[in-house]
């Protein structure tokens, strides 16, 4: 799709996947974070006008409604910063916010910045550095149309904050198509000229993998401990992917759970048109999780359930912690493949805190 020049544009069907995961993640993130931090930050660096031409919600509305309509009481003060470079879109967004404002808790705040994301975020971080302060726990959405204006050096500064998480749209199709014309943007995006080695690869799938591996490696080098991505397709065409980067395994667990909702078979991809079928999908196949557990913990030693849960929450597996018990532990135990120390639990098929397990 050509980059739209109008204030509003039509929602591309694959974009729904990005919005569904965002909504579901924020639903889970808000109460978890609010239970232990007094202030939270949602930064939408490429906010857009707040809605699409046919009235669907844009990311700013999705975020605000996640707070306004939450079933739990969110005690934390949630501050929204929406950055949008185009004046007409920033003004439209301000109008959308005006209509929603009264539904938000009185301790929340909303700020629209009609400017560049890079500049705005850099100023914010510079100001904090000067005052010797840190960013409040922040979910930073970086959702450009192309690879410009999203340097890895800035992502690094966000990841260096104690609780900065990034939800980044890596615009694969435009990188793949335009790489010869955008060398400087790609140097900045990847934080390295090594993308050129990927661009030279003839085979399309190997080229994509090379770009993605490099981006993931750079995120880890920037400070991310967990990196998860999912792919957005239009029919069979990969349009772009969302990379989620966090330092905390809880965030990783929550994003994986949110992604499973749009891809209930565990494929970590969203194909437009499939949203009507989500409720009827096949049961997931947990044999991969079982294999991974065997490999990780099959050393004949006792392992604390906390260690196993931590593994499942991390980005070492695509599965998430709520799947562990029914998907793996109960079947493994009933097949006699794991043994549970009877002194560490009182009921069959339960794996309480402190429970010890070993593969036989
Ligand atoms: C893909 S759209 C955002 C869509 C929105 N996040 C959503 O999901 O509803 C990208 C937006 O970023 C704006 N934009 C482009 N370059 C920018 C920059 N350097 N800084 C901030 N906004 C920018 C564009 O005008 C456009 O509205």
Q: Could you explain the architecture of this structure?
A:
With 360 residues, the protein is an alpha/beta fold. The protein has 2 domains: 15-280, Rossmann fold; 287-359, no CATH class. The protein is 42% helix and 17% strand. The protein is built from 13 helices and 11 strands. It has helices at residues 15-34, 59-68, 87-100, 117-130, 152-159, 172-178, 183-190, 195-199, 204-222, 249-262, 287-297, 305-313, 324-334, and strands at residues 39-44, 77-83, 109-113, 138-142, 164-170, 226-234, 237-246, 269-271, 303-304, 338-340, 356-359. Strands 3-2-1-4-5-7-6-8 form an 8-stranded mixed beta sheet, sandwiched between helices. α1 (15-34) runs antiparallel to α10, α2 (59-68) runs parallel beside α3 and α5 crosses α9 (204-222). The model has no long low-confidence stretch (mean pLDDT 94). It binds S-adenosylmethionine. The site of S-adenosylmethionine (SAM) has 17 residues, from loops.
In short:
The protein has 360 residues and is of the alpha/beta class.
SSE diagram, text form:
Layout: H1 15-34, E1 39-44, H2 59-68, E2 77-83, H3 87-100, E3 109-113, H4 117-130, E4 138-142, H5 152-159, E5 164-170, H6 172-178, H7 183-190, H8 195-199, H9 204-222, E6 226-234, E7 237-246, H10 249-262, E8 269-271, H11 287-297, E9 303-304, H12 305-313, H13 324-334, E10 338-340, E11 356-359
Parallel strand pairs: 1-2, 1-4, 2-3, 4-5, 6-8
Antiparallel strand pairs: 5-7, 6-7, 9-11, 10-11
The structure holds S-adenosylmethionine.
Residues 44, 46-48, 58-59, 83-86, 89, 116-117, 143-145, 149 line the site of S-adenosylmethionine (SAM).
